[in-house]
Amino acid sequence: MKKLFIFFLLIGSNIVLAGGSPDQTAKGIFLAFGVGPRFPMGSFANTSKFGYGFNAELSYTNDEYLPVFLFLKSGFENFPGSQDFYRSSDYSNYSTNVIPVNLGIRYYFPPIINSQVIVLPLVEFSANYGFYHVLNEFKAGSGKNNFTQNENKFGFSAGVGLSAFMMEILASYNYYKTNQFISIDLKIRFPIYINM
């Protein structure tokens, strides 16, 4: 716990250690879990209502990178079809499931609250890969056959948030061709390796 507190102080105050030997390098690996709503945009919003998603993330930093973290994140997202879309089409069921993989960087700014709880603003950017599985089911008597689609899509995301480091809220714009959406995640983060 003492090491975590010292590491957090390094992040919160943007201290960068210099001139130390390799065994004095501060570094850490962290595991985070996030969950929250997803809001389709553009043409994606014509077929799908708001959805949900959850993810797991590994992040890494050391005193040479602070306050920058590198991260790798994956999870699951679901977007059900909207009732308006069903009423105006031959569809009886339409849903989009996504398995995303994000590789990116996160930057923590100096604290905006520095009392009993330290709160840091943050921005993050990532390159995204998404495996899309789309279910297409039609109304009886429509004369159309049900089918599924599997697609690989590449895109990016950009997010802003507030962090107390162990807990974080993040809002992100996610871009894939024909599938843009806003995600909001509440995250809980745990240290899994710290070397001070």
Shape: elongated
Distance between the termini: 12 Å
Order of helices and strands: HEHEEHEEEEEE
Radius of gyration: 20 Å
Helical amount = 10-25%
Which CATH first-tier class would you pick? Mainly Beta
Count of beta strands: 9
| Arithmetic mean of pLDDT | 87
Q: What is the name of the CATH architecture? A: Beta Barrel
Overview of this protein structure:
The chain is mostly beta strands. The chain has a single domain, classed as Porin (Beta Barrel). It has three helices and nine strands, in the order αβαββαββββββ. Strands 1-2-3-4-6-7-8-9 form an eight-stranded antiparallel beta barrel. It is elongated, with a radius of gyration of 20 Å. The termini are close together.
A few lines on this structure:
The protein has about 200 residues and is mainly beta.
Set down the secondary structure blueprint.
Elements: H1 2-13, E1 27-41, H2 44-47, E2 51-62, E3 68-80, H3 83-87, E4 91-108, E5 113-114, E6 118-138, E7 147-163, E8 167-176, E9 180-195
Antiparallel strand pairs: 1-2, 1-9, 2-3, 3-4, 4-6, 5-6, 6-7, 7-8, 8-9
Fill in the keyword field for this structure.
196 residues, mainly beta, 11% helix, elongated, disordered N terminus
